[in-house]
Amino acid sequence: MTEPYRMRTRPKAIPQSLRTLLADVETATIGHFEYVGFIGALITPVFPAKAIGTAITVAAPGRDGTVIYKAIDLLTPGDALVISRVDQDDVACVGGGVVAAARARGAVAVIVDGPCTDIEEIRASKFPVWCRGVSSKTTSRRHQIGGAINVPIACGGAAVLPGYAVLADQEGVFVAEPSHMRRVADFALKRQRHSLQLRPHLEAGHSIFDLDQFVS
User: Fold this and answer.
1) How do the residues of the chain divide into helix, strand and coil, expressed in percent and rounded to 5?
2) What pLDDT was estimated at residue 213?
3) Which of 74, 90, 106, 116 is deepest in the core (most CB within 10 A)?
4) What is the pTM of this model?
5) Where do the domains of the chain lie, and which CATH numbers do they carry?
6) Which whole-number Å values give the CA distances from 169 to 46, 60, 86, in the listed order?
7) Are 65 and 5 in contact (CB under 8 A)?
8) Which of 119, 134, 143, 132 is nearest to 83 (CA)?
9) Are 95 and 135 in contact (CB under 8 A)?
């Protein structure tokens, strides 16, 4: 018989230099040139927010709330808790208690491909949460089914490995291996600078095709 909760070693935190680099990067810019790594569009922020962190992953089945709190006990400052609802159900595993506990551990965000609950409490907390809607049906620590922590998961159609860099903002959530995220960030910032230079040309009513060089 296997252990009901599989807990693997926590990943290495993404470097501060990458966090700094990502501070001005927009996921919508990345969406112009990357095709994978985007957590599904139905997963949106509870309130406008931005978060940059190290992915701590959870595979959470059924109504088992224990696995979520086991993961929270492993969080360190700068982590982003990324949860896969493996049953794709309408049960909320994130609410006011989870948010309070994650914040106390120094986490920067919770991202779940399922609903949350205690929506007003989450908004009042100002702790960033990305989720797929709201539900009054919740998990409980009384239901101990099992789950896994720091394993590869699928969240909103995206593959997320523990230790991935997470960039989440009002437009979406993008995840990638840290070295690739750095390359993506460098290119995105270059593109954003170019876009700012291009904007007056477009605002003047000119065609983008009038320019010798442009980024589509």
Assistant:
1) 30, 25, 45
2) 56
3) 116
4) 0.90
5) 6-213 (3.50.30.40)
6) 11, 24, 24
7) no
8) 132
9) no
